[in-house]
Every structure is written in C-alpha cells, then in structure tokens.
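Table S7 (text form). Paired inputs.
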Amino acid sequence: MRHQTLLSALTALLLGLGLNTSILAADELPEITEDGLHKMKDTNLGLVYADPEADLSVYNRIKLLDASVAFKKNWQRDQNRSYAHKVRPNDMERIKGDVARLFREVFTEELTEGGYELTEETGEDVLLVRPAIINLDVTAPDVSSATRGYQFSESAGEMTLYVELFDSETGAIIAKAMDRKRDRERGYMQWQTRVTNTAAAKRILKSWAKTLRDGLDEARAVASKN
C-alpha cells in the first residue's frame, strides 16, 4: 500500500509536466530508462519518468539550480526573415537571461509561499531541482532598435520545460519530465512588447511552479496518513 501511495504522490507531482510527443511513436520510448526510472502510464499529459520507490515527503528544502535557456532551432533566422528589426546575438542573450531570472523569481515565490525553504546546501531533506527551458519561441520579441517598431501576434509564443529531480545528498535521480506550453491564443492580434512577453512567460512558469508545489504538498499529505 505504501509503495502505491508514494507512487501516486510522485505521479501527482510530475504528471502536470507533460510533453507533446506526437512526433514519437509510443513504442520508441523505453519503459525503464538506463538510470532506472519508470515511464508513467495511463496519462495523456506526456512524457514522465520517475522512481516508483521515491518518497518526496522527506524533502522540506529545495536547492533550485539556475535554469539554462535555449531557443528553438533557427529561431533567430526565422525572426530576421519576417521582421524589419533584426534580432542580434546580444538580444538573444538578454532574453535568455531574463527568462532564467524570471524562472527563479516565480519558483522561489511559489515554493516559499508553500512553506518550502530555498537553500544552497545539500542534505537528506533537500531536493535538488535542475531545470532547463528549451525550444523557446518568442513570437514577437521586443528588440532594441534605432527606430520604433510595432510587432503584433495572437500569442506571445511557447517554451518547453525539461526538469530533473535529485536527492541532493546521494545524487540519486528521482524523476525527470518535459512539458511544452504555449501562451494562449487570443483570436485577435495584439501588440507584443517586453512587458506582454514577460507576463506571458510568467503565466507559464507559474503553472509549472504550482505543479511542483502541489506535488510536494500531496506527498506530505500521503505520508501523514501512513
């Protein structure tokens, strides 16, 4: 019974982190990874691997590593074909830095509100979270230019989260998952600025942060009943 309840708690944490794997056939994905993680079944939420024996209720503190950020392949080229104001390498570095800082800000706020302490230490009660934002696709970036430009789109864009959870003391991997999210389609064109792009990114990041917090809360609730 305890095995099943702990698996349910871990699943609750990570099944909110789904990946659109339509480009992959189900039989191309292994049932068990080389590091012993099991693919979670019976979910439409995407690709999730987890250790079925893990007990997340023992973690009261979180060591959150900085998120690495990578743009969608050929994003700069495609942008520069479509818009008069060209995206330069320094624009890309600024955007990546902004996303990484916003990631930490949103996750820190959500987790601390839930009573979890953020730490730089390792320990038996410390869960290490290693995140990455990949396939970042900002539909209409607000880039610096000598002349004022206006860029319009129905959506601010999309990004994919790849996250790994480790026991910070032993280094054992607990779970890994991916989730692709796109900013809402409004059905009409909107002027996109740095402010609107940041707001859209924050909405997506907050949903992921809440998934992590809810999963940790659920693990605690399950453990308290046993």
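Next pair, protein 2 of 2.
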Amino acid sequence: MANIDHKPSKYMLNLQHVLPAFVHEGKKIVNGLIEINANSINKYEFIIESGQLKLDRVGYSSLAYPVAYGLIPQTWDKDNDLLDCVVANVTEPLAPGCLAEVRVIGVMKFIDSDEEDDKIITVLADDKRMDHIVSYKDLGPHWQEETKHYFEHYKDLKKPGTGKVVGFFEVDEAMKIIHECMERYDAEYRPKLEE
C-alpha cells in the first residue's frame, strides 16, 4: 500500500531513507514526500536526519507556491539536499507530510544562490484528470510563466536575484536527473545512515 519494504517497527520510519525513489519506473511514477501545498507562503522542510516536518520559514512576501512541493526519497541533488519535485494541477490540498505517488512529466532546471537545485515536474499518478498530461508542455505556457515567475521572485525581499530558472525540459531529461541523484545518494549520503 505505502511502498515500504520494511518490517513493522515501534519507531517512526524516516521515509526519506526508507522509500525507494521509484514506485514504477516504467510508468515514470516516483514517491513524492509532500512538504508544501499549493497556495501556501509557509516553507516546510523535512529534517533530513530524523524525518520530522519543520516550518523552515514564513515567506517574505505574499507570493504563494503555485504548485505543491516536495522531494523524492533516496536521491541527492547537487545542492546537498534531496531532489525536489513539484506537483502541478492539484485539485484538493495535499497535507504537508503526506506521501503521494506522482508521475514525472518534465524538469525545471533552477539555480538557487549559485547552486543547481532542479525541480522534477510531476502530476498525481492516480488522478484521472491528469491522464492526458504526459509533458510539462501539456500544462500550457501560462503555467510555465507563472512557475518561473514564482521561483525567480519569491526570495526578492530577502535575497533579490538569487533564483534563476534555466529552462524547462522533457521527461527523458528528468529521468536522467533522477537516476544521477539516486547514484549520488548511494555514493554520498547512504554511507552516513545508521544501520
């Protein structure tokens, strides 16, 4: 049910390190751990070491996330954090902290304070309203402009000019980045885990 290949435990599992990245690689479905719902100005983050959800900060402006936002477990991006994913066209709010199976439809390459911080673009895998969406292009040009505007300006009142969208790319590039981040996780982060 929850994609966890782990025996029952009396301790809370840190899903960032227990769940695999992929639910079904052939269908391009990944596990998405949701940190922030669309239309929120609150920035929540999972604590990497323990798995609890923490309020990282309240946004500095009235710009609200245009997408739900989270991470893909057992990945490690070049910014020394788990690989981010955004979930487009969410009809009902997704509770921060929930696990959602999401289907990859592209990637937004992003630079945050001179670090690569890519965002895998997804839709909910089990939402029939999303079945026809197979590419980020199917979301329309306004979705791209709105998302780009948000990520390039949401920090303007604190750190202006630190976010830059490099571009939007198709599913093949997104899958390549996920695999690279899985390999980086195995090499750089997995050795830090306690047995």
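The radius of gyration is 16 Å.
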